[in-house]
């Protein structure tokens, strides 16, 4: 509803006023934006402190995110090694192969199936013993088993899922011997859970610390300007009218803080982290750290804005009951 | 214009700031509230601009009971009540002009009108040349005149003042007093809380004496200065 109409219906008759150049929501919004910008100019020190705090806070959190995401990505890549192998003591015919392949792929969790013939197995064995081929003299391929190597979908690489998969596999007629490195899978998965738990704990702790520091900084900066709130209330400003410029200011501070922190993070990344592969070889496939994905960057912008806005909102609530 | 019926007000359970106060102030009247510190002068003024609600009794402004006014309505009450204080309550990081303009910005006036009206009132107060200065560069008297300009710029029906001359020398007191009188002549009801005897004696206006939260004496001062008890 138009503010002026609202005033007309108010119990206390408002004062008549001359031309209403800043009327309607648009006009008022224009006034609030102008007021917020003037406020920033007139309280430059307080604004620098707030933006600086938000910047540092978001920089700490986003730096943590960058490292954590890369670490988790690297660890997840190791899980490619979770593999289930089915052994056969004879060579399978092509039709047998495709029957098994279809049955295995029909199981939930199966990602890829590769057949390893006896000759292929011998070739790999020889490769592994390169330089000591004499050891294999006289060994023929029929002493080695043929096998299916099964890669699992990402979601099925946890200990229980692997076990479920293996027992389903064993129910297929003709499959007797299955190996999947139980111990390795178990250890790998507990390591992965540990990494995630540490991430959540450290990240959660950081977020709480950051929220605490930012909200208190905003509270102090608004406290420093409580006379402004008091005077506005004294001359008959509605709560909304008092709050709006402060909220816009908070929003702008949050956006400025997040922009600067992302710029700083990118600077740090370009300067040091992107070629950190020499001492942080997490991931042999991609090598080096990746920058934050786009959705995280957008997330940091949004959380900066939300931080500034909500921080101002909650602080104002405490001071406006004049 | 202003009526208080059996108004009682206590900040804590034991200390009562106002006790069963009845007071009527007519439209266009000029009234001094006086009494020792802690008599309840400030509390009474705070009731009149909605900063406090009484524990008991009714406060009527223009026939409307404001003692039970919802918080959302208080701003509209304050638009017709100007208030000044001993410590001026000016915003130190804004210019004189901006300090006065706040009142009209709140009402939604356009920029051009604000400019004209603010310069007009600053001229009346004799401080138009200082419009671009911040308050800390002004004397106490000038600051109080800025505060008065802010309170009077939208021609309020009521002007309330809490020890307005407490920080001023005699020359400035007289100037401030004459501004009150001018505003009163133009139809604004004026209520000034002060314990400055000289100010009261000079101005020959109605006097309400408070002590320990009660009205102990009321006098209508005639032109010749004779006390006329009501």
Count of alpha and pi helical runs of chain B: 7
Overall mean pLDDT of chain B stands at: 90
- The H-level CATH homologous superfamily of the largest domain in chain B, spelled out, is P-loop containing nucleotide triphosphate hydrolases
Distance between the termini of chain A: 25 Å
| Main sheet: strand order of chain B | 6-7-8-3-9-10-11
The number of helical elements of chain A comes to 10
Rg of chain A to the nearest angstrom?
A: 32 Å
- Helix share of residues of chain A? 55-70%
Report the portion of residues of chain A in β strands. Answer: 5-15%
Q: Which fold does the CATH topology of the largest domain in chain B refer to?
A: Rossmann fold
CATH class of the largest domain in chain B: Alpha Beta
The radius of gyration of chain B is: 18 Å
Structural class of chain B: alpha/beta
Shape of chain B: globular
Largest sheet of chain B: 7 strands, mixed
H/E element sequence of chain A: HHHEHEHEHEHHHH
Quick tags:
heterodimer; A: 322 residues; alpha+beta; four-stranded antiparallel beta sheet; 10 helices; 4 strands; 64% helix; disordered N terminus; B: 230 residues; Rossmann fold; 2 domains; seven-stranded mixed beta sheet; 7 helices; 33% helix
């Amino acid at each position: 509803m138009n503010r002026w109409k609202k005033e007309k219906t108010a119990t206390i008759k408002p004062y008549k006023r001359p031309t209403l150049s800043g009327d309607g929501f648009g006009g008022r919004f224009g006034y609030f934006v102008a007021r917020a910008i003037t406020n920033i100019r007139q309280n430059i020190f307080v604004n620098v402190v707030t933006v600086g705090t938000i910047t540092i806070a978001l920089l700490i959190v986003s730096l943590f995110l960058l490292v954590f995401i890369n670490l988790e990505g690297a660890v997840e890549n190791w899980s490619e090694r979770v593999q289930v192998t089915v052994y056969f003591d004879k060579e399978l015919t092509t039709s047998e192969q495709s029957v098994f392949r279809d049955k295995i792929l029909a199981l939930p969790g199966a990602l890829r199936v590769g057949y390893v013939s006896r000759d292929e197995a011998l070739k790999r064995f020889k490769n592994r013993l390169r330089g000591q081929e004499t050891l294999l003299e006289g060994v023929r391929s029929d002493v080695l088993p043929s096998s299916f190597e099964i890669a699992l979908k990402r979601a099925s690489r946890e200990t229980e899922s692997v076990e479920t998969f293996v027992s389903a596999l064993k129910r297929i007629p003709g499959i007797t011997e299955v190996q999947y490195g139980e111990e390795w899978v178990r250890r790998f998965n507990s390591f992965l859970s540990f990494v995630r738990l540490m991430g959540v704990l450290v990240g959660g702790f950081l977020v709480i610390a950051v929220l605490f520091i930012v909200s208190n900084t905003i509270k102090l900066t608004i406290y420093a300007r409580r006379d402004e709130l008091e005077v506005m209330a004294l001359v008959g400003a509605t709560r909304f009218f008092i709050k709006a410029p402060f909220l816009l200011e908070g929003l702008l501070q949050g956006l400025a803080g997040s922009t600067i922190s992302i710029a700083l993070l990118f600077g740090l990344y370009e300067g040091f982290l992107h070629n950190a592969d020499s001492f942080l070889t997490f991931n042999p496939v991609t090598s080096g750290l990746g920058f934050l994905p786009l959705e995280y960057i957008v997330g940091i912008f949004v959380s900066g804005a939300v931080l500034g806005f909500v921080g101002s909102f909650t602080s104002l609530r405490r001071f406006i009951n004049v | 214009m202003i009526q208080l019926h059996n108004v009682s007000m206590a900040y804590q359970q034991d200390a009562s700031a106002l006790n069963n106060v009845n007071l009527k102030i007519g439209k266009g009247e000029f009234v001094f509230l006086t009494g020792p510190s802690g008599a309840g002068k400030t509390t009474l003024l705070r009731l009149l601009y909605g900063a406090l609600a009484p524990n008991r009794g009714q406060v009527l402004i223009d026939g409307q009971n404001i003692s039970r006014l919802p918080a959302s309505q208080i701003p509209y009450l304050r638009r017709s009540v100007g208030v000044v204080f001993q410590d001026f309550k000016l915003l130190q990081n804004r210019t004189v002009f901006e300090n006065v303009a706040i009142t009209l910005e709140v009402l939604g006036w356009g920029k051009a009108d604000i400019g004209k009206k603010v310069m007009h009132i600053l001229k009346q107060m004799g401080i138009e040349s200082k419009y671009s200065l911040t308050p800390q560069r002004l004397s106490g008297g000038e600051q109080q005149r800025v505060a008065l300009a802010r309170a009077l710029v939208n021609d309020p029906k009521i002007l309330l003042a809490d020890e307005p001359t407490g920080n001023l020398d005699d020359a400035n007191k007289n100037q401030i007093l004459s501004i009150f009188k001018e505003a009163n002549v133009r139809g604004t009801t004026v209520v000034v809380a002060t314990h400055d005897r000289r100010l009261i004696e000079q101005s020959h206006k109605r006097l309400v004496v408070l002590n320990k939260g009660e009205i102990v004496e009321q006098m209508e001062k005639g032109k010749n200065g004779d006390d006329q008890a009501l």
